[in-house]
Amino acid sequence: MSKNSTKKLTWEYGYMLGMTAISGILAFLMNKMSLPVILILFLVDLAGIIVLWLKPLSRKLLYILNVLNCLASVSLAYLLITAFIKSVDSFVAFIIILVVMDVFSFTKAGKKTPNAKLISNNNALPRLSICLPVPGKPGLQPIIGVGDLYFYGTISVFSIHHFGMSVFGYIVLLILAGQLINILLISNIKEKVWYKGFPATLFPGILYLIILFFA
Asked: The pTM is what?
């Protein structure tokens, strides 16, 4: 791999880790807000996202979508966790379902799933991803999916709600460790002919389930 290619990947992987950490920080901040405020925040974000979806893609639009997508994904995670998931057992089932669905969408058999179709859609992919500048590549590059940020947000929100604020730092480090394993695996298979992407929920989800099992 050339030095230029390595530099590009370093930026992309750094962004992935940074956005993963940001999802946890947003979960921490939203825990200090009231439920009505978070609901209003989500509805306003959702309205803004819908309006921007009707506009043609541009650099400015993608930067605004980055902010709205981050806030919407974590606020939705907060609302759903607060309203529907009340026990560790139900959350374990929820995590397993999300990870299995995500992994399946990257297989040949899962190419017709909604997630797989969105990933292959050149118009939808940048709108449903966090897009950032990568030196040596034109425009803004999709770095990580909104669904992935939602997944990390649910883990952070649930952990704070059920185990207290004292676990927050450990949970964020755990998710980052899982993301780092994702990155190490991606870096080794990225150049393979059959490579079509990788489920970013996989190892953060597995590590979290292991911790819950032994806690």
From this structure: 0.92
